[in-house]
Amino acid sequence: MKIQKAAVIGAGVMGAAIAAQLANAGIPVMLLDIVLPDNPDRNFLAKSGVQRALKARPAAFMDPARAALIQVGNLEDNLKDLKNADWILEAIIEKLDAKRSLWERVEKVAKKTAIISSNSSGIPMHLQIEGRSEDFQRRFVGAHFFNPPRYLHLLEVIPTPKTDPKVTETFSEFAQTTLGKGVVVANDVPGFVANRIGVYGIVRAMDHMQRAGLTPAQVDQLTGPALGRASSATFRTADLSGLDIIYHVASDLGNATPDDEDFTLTPAFRTLVEEKKMLGDKTGSGFYKKTKGADGKTKILNLNLDTFEYEDQGRVKVAAVDAVKGQPLATRVKALYAAEGQEGEFLRGVMNDGFWYAAKMAGNVSNRLQDIDNALKWGFGWEQGPFETMDTLGVQTVIANLEAEGRTLPPLLAAMKESGRDAFYAGDETVTPEGQPTKYEAPYFILTDLKKDATRVIKKRAGASVIDLGDGVLLAEWHAKMNALGEDQLRTVQDAHKLVQDMGYHGLVIGNQGENFSAGANLPLILSQAQADEWDELDDMIKQFQQVTTSLRFSPHPTVAAPFGLTLGGGAEFTLHADHVVASAELYMGLVEVGVGLIPGGGGTKEMLLRFTDMQQPGQQLGATLLPAVQRAFELIGTAKVSTSALEARKLGFLRDTDTVAMNKNHILQDAKRQVLALAPGYVQPTPRQDIPVMGDAAIGAIKSALYGMHEGGYITDYDLVVSGELARVLGGGTGNNRAAKVSEQHLLDLEREAFLTLLGKKGTQQRIEHMLKTGKPLRN
């Protein structure tokens, strides 16, 4: 049951996006749909699905070239071709009869080893396969993706009572490793896990909002990032999903579940859908509406649920949220749960509903508490699931509050009360849905699990640590805000190198499991030192930075970088110098220093020039043949190009063909560790290059000539010209050299450092840094 080829039936929004994700993973996939009777192109719907995916924003494809892996067809001419697919997934209309009819046709042509799946979000899986053979039922497992499939980590895998456990295991492994999904094994019940609990939360939030006299905008402040949840919070999420979708799902769940679960929609919500037809983003208006003001800028108007008119409420401020700004998540959650007034009344009502319902659903929607927590985190962008949040507050505190409201405790909470246990997770232990202790099974390699064993943390600083990954491999982990690079991060990498050598470890991984690998250098520190004229200190700091980044290549042991998310500036420079890179597929990597009036000073400029000049054909002479390589490096750095995926990073030159791309971000540290162990036997320490070809004044002149033309045309600013001139000087290998020559890596590093300091001393650069720190946007001065 190895999945090497796939087929998706149904080329609508979800079907086409799932096909794109398969293509992203390198899996050839057929995309089939019906034949439109009046259209001469029998594959029109499937072709349209691919085109829609290519135009989607955010992008469905990690690299548009991957669309070539999708073979389009139709269910009349190409049904027989399903015999080649190892996995067949349907994403057609949500009607039981249509799905049953499709499965009858598919069974006649699918090979006997193919795994069969439905992407249905609501129709029970066991109902779809009634009447099919035992062999077909054995190979059938639900696969419910969340939209958009590329970006939402959750995949609910739903076996039926007839599904072979080996099929569930094989498919789950494929989904995690190849497709990069976070798998939650759900029971075949209405709504499965995430929608059952998530939609319940939305419905209850609407009811509590109106009871507390709050507005949707106020509720979104209370139930968004302040509570550790997505910025779209409750009602913005509803607008994005479609209020009609929420309406139908809630209605279906209300019909399919006991009365005490209460999926009753408020009269105001029903009016929005049934009478006003205000369905959210798809109709341009829902709880919010975008409009343009007199100044031409987009404004967000808020719905008044009493009048059903839109109002400009300006920036909505909520006292309970303002009071916890800047606090750690645990502090925020405790404070918000204990808040006073109507805001606190609302939050306790909503949170207690969520806690009660999650506990009631334990053993119903899924057999593990962690699957419920992960479904809400991966499907809705929560930082903590409901059981983790109860742990933060103290489970006995939550139980006491629920009882004070007169609620009957679900069996899980009743068992927790009887045992006196105050947390669902403790060390490597959790509890079953019946409240009995059991071993916690981490879904992936989780760094915090290692940290629970204090012996694994070898050395710790405020912003970084050295951790033993086991099997003779160390990890230099950064854990500062945005993982900005400062003294803690640099010294920790140096500590780790020394420990590898002194303690006989095999090698080193650079990585972490924060929100981003690294957003770059510590700009506030750099600016403050420049404004204080601490130039000797700055020169020493940049030298140290260069020494540490290049140490990843020139150490006596292998180093592997594991970048993901934002990998900018200095974060990219660390990555560029590693012996090997295991990158998350979602990699946003770039040398972006020109945006703040600088150039890469940690070896990034040198490294891109070296890489592109090495791509010359052997035997080519130096001179004009180098110019395309210089121009390529200049364009990449000078435009602050950032990859939109690891596949694009490879095309741009940030990653080598030999580097590894992992679809699942949570696998990269494990994979990086394996790469260190693979490199360690017979590893030979590299030596710095002395033979990098440069063009000198010829390259500088060519670039400056193009720059002046762009400046005259108004494409770049006066200060862009200054910054670009310094970049050209480094890429040319320095001025005063009128012929092609070869220089050392250290020569280019020295030029980088000189250019970095020169620019840092200029008013234009300091203005750009100040503007970036203040607004988060580049200044065009």
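^ that was protein a. below is b, sequence first then the tokens
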Amino acid sequence: MTNRSGSQRFFSGTQIREDFLRFFEGKVSDATGQGHRRVHSSSLVPVNDPTLLFTNAGMNQFKDVFLGNEKRDYTRAVSSQKCVRAGGKHNDLENVGFTRRHHTFFEMLGNFSFGDYFKKDAIAYAWELLTSNHDHCFGIDPARLYVTIFEGDAKVPRDDEAERFWIEIGVPKERIFGMGAKDNFWQMGDTGPCGPCSEIFYDMGMGAAEEAGVDMPFPQDEQRYVEVWNLVFMQFDRSSDGTLTPLPKPSIDTGMGLERIAAVLQGVLSNFETDLFTPLIARAEELTGHKVEPEHAVDERSRASLRIIADHARAATFLISDGVLPANEGRGYVLRKILRRGIRHGRLLGQEKPFMYQMVFAVRDEMQTAYPELKESAERASKVVLAEEEQFARVMDGASRRFNDLIIETKKDVLIPILSTAPYKGFLYHQYELSIANLHADPIAAFKLEQDKVALNDRDAINLLYDVALKASENPTNLISISRNIDGAKAFSIFETYGLPFDFMVDAARDAMMYIDLVGFDAAKEVEQQRARASWKGGSQKSAAPVYRELPKTEFEGYSTLRVDGAKVLALVKDGVGVPELKGGETGEVVLDTTSFYADSGGQVGDVGWLYSGDHNLVVAEVSGATKPVQGVFAHKVRANQTIAAGDMVDTVVDAATRAATIRNHTGTHLLHAALREVLGKHVKQAGSLNDAARLRFDFSHFTGVAEEELREVEEIVNRQVMGNTKVETLVDVPIDVAVNELGAMALFGEKYGEKVRVVKIGDFSTELCGGIHTGATGEIGVIKVVGEGSVSSGVRRVEAVSGTGALDEFRRDFDVAKVVGAFVGSGVGSSSEGVTPAEALRARIAAQEEEMKKLRRELDTVRMKAASSSLSDAGASAVEMKGVKVLAQRVDGVEKAQMRELVDSLRIKLGSGVVVLGAADSAAGKVSLIVGVTKDLTARVQAGKIVGLLAAQVGGKGGGRPDLAEAGGSDVGSLDAALKGAAEVVGGLLG
């Protein structure tokens, strides 16, 4: 059966991806005899590129190649790149689920030429792949395809060349359309490579039309005519003044969304109807318990929710697998928004319990063929999602309370001016008294006028009075105007900060007979979006000073030597600007053509040492470290001892002792990583590291603290490897696919890898991709001692350790402590009493002392209670009567809060009916505690919260509580007696 594209075959999403890659692998360069290099998708977290929030296009990982900062051993490439567009400049989040083609996570198929082929071949390849019926081609009916080219502007002429190539390949001229720069001129940023582009569109047919039954010509109907492929022709270099200079080697960058081409080839109108999504949507139906029947058109909102869950599960799974964790800023904040949006739509479908964490495994099952790393990371990703779901449930409760507080605050703001202005207050009071008669025995106690202001402290009273005012405003004869708008900016703050769904807020406002000010809400939202866009401006390479980009690469010889003689000074940099020389005493950076200094990378810090003069005798500069501001260029941080100028010849000499200590810790990190995975589980994945001469620090994914016995086991495993003196092998120029898939090498977080990689292998125990320097054998480490473990962030733990002489120093310190402990507990160092170590003896001694202290505290509490009870034994005689109500007020210093509550309960029983006020002072701490109890029969007349609030004000504090029991604190110890003495009058005032 022929599908919508005209093809006789059914193409699965997996097959489409593989066909695309294989097609271009077969397109061979005449110059090199090589086909397109299949390049594995890079991480969703861009490496060494602060201009991007997430990887959002296939060309991101080749950005340095296009900029000329990096060269690779191939000139043409093909990839299927995972992308996320959910924040910053490219943000599709709010559209996802409600359109056919918007996604947060998607895959971009792309072919690239780095100065190899250009327009003619790119156009020919694209047309062949789309329309041919050859192997690995899609066989789309050419009659359904349209093409656009750049129509030209004042700076760049019309792309007649591209049009000619399209016509030569068989596209009718009437199907080629000129478009403006907005659609058909691409640029990497404000400066740098740019050029015209050509887009290919597919006609989805009348069934996809924006307006049913209306046949609009191309390109007027964006729903019907879908862009499936964009061919970018990089042929200019834009300077800062806008000048366009032809590139010496024009390049090609193309991008085709896998989800879109799948919809075309599978004959469906929406990407969500393809096999890339239907299994996930089906799983979402199972997990939410909400199955949507296709014939129920009215259930479109539920269908959108299921699409959102499926899409967001893909994005969350891949982001977490690439090292992103939910947070309150940056990438983690976007992930949190994605997750919470998915969770919220599950709630809209009626699922209140966690469910998104199970969607992770559905994503794994669908995507693990193309992304085998999901097999290992899915378990960890699921735990991250579950933790976020549980936290969101708590947030929802808190956020709902905050929005309800905003409603009450808004009502109070509405009522205060009305009730403070005659003649309305009298009318409303009268209406209120009638309405509240069954709610409060004394309506005046619920609120009262003081100095033309309303003190409204009772939510029921506020709501009821607002209802009264609202009804009164509906009668024109009352001349009352009442606002029903909730401040939009404040509502947006709750929406953005706490994640309370907008729909929930709208419903709550409607229930309160109010509306959210949408103008203010949208204005606040726009301000936030502008702030986000300003924080993440994708564009030109701004991470390094321009001076570095023009320099040749530095040849690094530090893997095999600590000294290089005759290195040439290529450039000197001071404060980010190139200078001809650095004078003695000045600090700056020196770029050399060759060096023995390792530069910061992969967690290993740069080497320190010296630059010697060309005659090998004089230290011309001290080196405090090295970095790579541009890929391959080494910048040495120096303090010059004498003038050093461009063109000088120097010797690079690395501090051998510091290097040795650093590489011991670096190799130790690899051992520690493997041991943690062995003890804690394969979900452990590196999340960061730092290796310097002093110690090693290793961050990893794990959800609970590492127990002491687990740390001890890790330490034992690591040191067995050290004592085994296993050879540390370094394999160079290994194809990355071979390293990962055949050797089983683990990639380190935050490291940038090319097509050829270095693999560090420690026997059968550890195999990792790593560009760092290591010991020749594990025995060189000496010993590894774990010195600390703790939390870094949600789901990330940190272990710190020392090795070599650092470990020796640690053992010496421990030995000194052990001597002191031994003397304290009565056992000698290095010996034990009946098999008990000094540490165990100390623990036992401390535990016994803590138990003794608990016993003494209990006895002291008992004595205090007896003393306090004795002083209050004649409660009836101590109480005074105020307007028929007994009031007992006493000072009970030295009694804890819990004991004060017990005393209040006891005294209320003795009084039978009345009010009890107790106060206690801690003079040393400058604190006052107050507690008020009211017997149940009196709470309709006088409330404990109001009494304690007025008393607290007298001692410099505040408090509140239930009508029958309330507490407060204060700081004015000297005013406590006066406050207690006046307690009866306070009660009398509230009795009226």
